[in-house]
Amino acid sequence: MVQIKRLQEDGIDTLAIIGEIDASSSIELDLSIAKSVGEGYKKILVDCGSLEYISSAGLGVFMSYIEEFSDKGICMVMFGLNEKVANNFSILGLSDLLHIRATKEEAKQLINELSI
Amino acid sequence: MSYRYNIGCSLSNLKGIREFIRTSLKDHDIPELELSAIILAIDEMCSNLMIHAHHCNPDHHIELRILEPHAGELVFEIIDDGNVFDINKFSEPNVDNLVHEKRKGGLGIRLVKSIMDKVEYINRDGKNVCVLTKGI
Question: Which of A20, A105, B59, B86 has its CA 20 to 30 A from that of B53?
């Protein structure tokens, strides 16, 4: 069960993920990112502070956008991952393919640097 | 003492599987990060089986057993009577290729093989038994 809240601020679309993402709920994440992209946002922050669990279904959603973001000049930075969630990303080596920062401030700084 | 859990093949039951494993193993002093990775691997195996062998039919059931930890080994059995979905027959996809092809699937098998030490398949009493072993 997952809930995704979106908040737009200073041209940045922030997606706050609350709960768990597994094979039953990864579609929610996919739809939220697709919506943000569809609305033309070039800067997307993903707040993982309340993300309690993620399986390969959710990891796959993030991965499936890497190429599209690169083609469209969209930057996505994730922040606030707890240790267990971060470990799931690093087991697959996805930490090197995605932009991940500890805090919202660091994530905002990076997204602004990357968007120049 | 072993632990058993019967589940209908609906993806909404994955959360129950994760809670079952966590509750069953809570007194076994498994480091939190390691336990979370093990839970992830079993979630991946069960969701694969539900999707590929049972087409998410909630009337089909699988059984998850956790055998009593012994000699530093944790053994899980996933029992069903669908078509065998043997992950050893699938090559692990290269992550760069998945990114390039914008594929969302294919990571689960890689996760399971990275986390568990051994994944074997046997037939017992006409049922498929997937045996997953992890040293703790």
Answer: A20
Q: What span, in angstroms and rounded, lies between the C-alpha atoms of A22 and B57?
A: 18
DSSP per-residue string spanning B48-85: HIIIIITTT-TTSEEEEEEPPPBTTEEEEEEEESS---
Residue-wise pLDDT tens digits, A2-54: 999 999 999 999 999 999 999 999 999 999 999 999 999 999 999 999 999 99
| Domains along chain A with CATH numbers | 2-114 (3.30.750.24)
Would you kindly state where each structural domain of chain B is located, as residue ranges? Answer: 3-135
Mutation site, B7, B12, B13, B14, interface A, largest A CB count within 10 A = B14
Give the nearest chain B residue to A66 (CA atoms).
B99
* ipTM rounded to 2 decimals: 0.91
Query: Is the predicted pLDDT of residue B128 greater than 90, yes or no?
Result: yes
For A54, which residue in chain B has the nearest alpha carbon?
B40
CA distance A54 to chain B (A): 8
